[in-house]
């Protein structure tokens, strides 16, 4: 952004410089004519007295010529003051590639005087052959096209060493539209180029650091998931044995346990059950991250029917009714989509209000987000709900809003839902009202097949979908 502003400012300065050069050319022409004009004025003043009227007219002409010359001299001093004070290089070539004007900045770059420079060509002023040939071709192009040309080149400054310059050559034309000279302006952009190079190197270093850190984070994440998978798998067997033998002790008629002993064993069984569920949750979570599954067309109506069959006992316990409305077929990983909706339905059943038959509605519709078509699926229930300030927190891992002795669970179900939806390039959000229920909204990219209403799934075998 800064370099574009600098170049824009430079172009404005160059346009002014070219106008100044045109004026200087005109003044130089008038200056070369001034001796002739002065001689003519002196000759007029020496004419015989008897000429009268002609003499009067000649004196008027001579006076006007003198005034015009004074005006030109004043303008020349102004223009020379301007061109000599700018750090930009201002110059003029004739049609033979010779310099006919150079301001003080350009003379300083060459390390030469006006007398040593004016009338000289590019090679004589220290330009390398390739450099001189390039400028001569550019001058020919300007003359042929009558259009300005711009370039960038490196050149050794007499004091500052090698510098980088941005330049413009523009045609100077007479009243007939013929090119009579080429005016040029040049700006030293070495510092700007240095800043740009430094910025580019900094960006490259930053990209490299980000890439390295990302790869390191990915390795760490992969190692952590692998550890979680292995650790969880290894923990299942001892946990299963604890649960098994605690159950044997509890149900062994020959064991003589006191009331406290029976209660302690029940706590052991309950804790081992929770541990087993948590291990399964961690395993499922790690599987979702590493699972590579081909996407296929998944019928959501049929999928919900299978989940309802698997949750048949819980549905009967909660006297639940599950309604599906306009569910389509969508592209996705069947195993992951099953896990997604299984967790959501199980969550709605688990947090049903005591003594109130659970009602769960699953409804879909197509929506447009910008130019993208999406499928929106809502899962609504009439359960205990939750305060809206927890709408994002509930998707975090191992987060529970309710005591584990009231509602069982691992705190991984909804975080797993979020990960599955994100794996499908979608989003999931939640809203709730305590005592009224919760709504989970899923948005997935892509179009859906034609929808059809499915039968209600109620408590009991007849209600399976």
Provide a descriptive summary of the structure in words.
With 465 residues, the protein is an alpha+beta fold. Helix content is 52%, strand content 20%. It has eleven helices and 13 strands. The strands form three sheets. A six-stranded mixed β-sheet has the order 11-12-10-9-7-13. It has a five-stranded antiparallel β-sheet with strand order 2-1-5-4-3, with helices on both faces. A two-stranded antiparallel ribbon has the order 6-8. A hairpin with a 2-residue loop joins strand 9 and strand 10. Helix 6 runs antiparallel to helix 7, helix 7 runs parallel beside helix 11 and helix 10 runs antiparallel to helix 11. The two termini are 61 Å apart. 25% of the residues are buried.
């Amino acid at each position: 952004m800064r370099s574009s502003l600098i170049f824009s400012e430079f172009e404005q300065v160059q346009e002014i410089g070219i106008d100044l050069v045109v004026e200087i050319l005109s003044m130089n022409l008038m200056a070369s004519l001034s001796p002739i004009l002065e001689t003519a004025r002196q000759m007029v003043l020496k004419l015989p007295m008897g000429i009268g009227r002609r003499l009067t007219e000649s004196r008027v002409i001579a006076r006007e010529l003198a005034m015009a010359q004074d005006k030109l001299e004043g303008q020349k001093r102004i223009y020379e003051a301007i061109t000599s004070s700018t750090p930009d290089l201002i110059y003029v070539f004739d049609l033979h590639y010779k310099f006919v004007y150079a301001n003080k900045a350009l003379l300083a770059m060459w390390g030469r005087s006006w007398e040593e420079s004016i009338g000289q060509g590019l090679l004589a002023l220290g330009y390398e052959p390739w450099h001189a040939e390039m400028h001569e071709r550019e001058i020919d192009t300007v003359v042929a096209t009558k259009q300005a040309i711009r370039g960038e080149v490196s050149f050794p400054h007499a004091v500052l060493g090698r510098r980088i310059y941005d330049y413009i050559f523009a045609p100077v034309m007479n009243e007939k539209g013929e090119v009579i000279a080429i005016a040029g302006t040049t700006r030293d952009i070495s510092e700007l180029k240095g800043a740009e190079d430094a910025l580019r190197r900094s960006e490259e270093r930053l990209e490299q650091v980000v890439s390295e850190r990302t790869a390191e984070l990915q390795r760490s994440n992969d190692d952590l998931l692998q550890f979680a998978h292995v650790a969880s798998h290894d923990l299942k067997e001892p946990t299963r044995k604890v649960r098994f033998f605690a159950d044997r002790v509890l149900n062994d008629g020959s064991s003589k346990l006191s009331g406290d002993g029976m209660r302690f064993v029940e706590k052991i069984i309950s804790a081992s059950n929770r541990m087993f569920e948590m291990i399964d949750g961690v395993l499922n979570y790690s599987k979702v991250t590493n699972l590579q599954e081909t996407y296929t067309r998944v019928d959501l109506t049929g999928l919900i029917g299978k989940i309802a069959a698997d949750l048949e006992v819980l549905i009967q316990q909660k006297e639940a009714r599950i309604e599906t409305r306009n569910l389509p077929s969508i592209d996705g990983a069947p195993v992951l989509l099953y896990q997604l909706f299984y967790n959501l339905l199980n969550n709605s059943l688990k947090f049903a209000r005591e003594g109130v038959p659970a009602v769960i509605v699953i409804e879909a519709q197509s929506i447009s987000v910008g130019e993208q078509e999406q499928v929106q699926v809502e899962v609504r229930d009439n359960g205990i709900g939750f305060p809206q300030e927890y709408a994002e927190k509930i998707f975090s891992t191992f987060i529970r809003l309710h005591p584990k002795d009231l509602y069982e669970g691992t705190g991984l179900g909804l975080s797993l839902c979020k990960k599955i939806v994100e794996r499908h390039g979608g989003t999931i959000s939640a809203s709730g009202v305590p005592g009224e229920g919760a709504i989970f909204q899923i948005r997935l990219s892509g179009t859906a097949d034609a929808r059809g209403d499915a039968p209600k799934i109620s408590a009991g075998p007849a209600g399976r979908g």
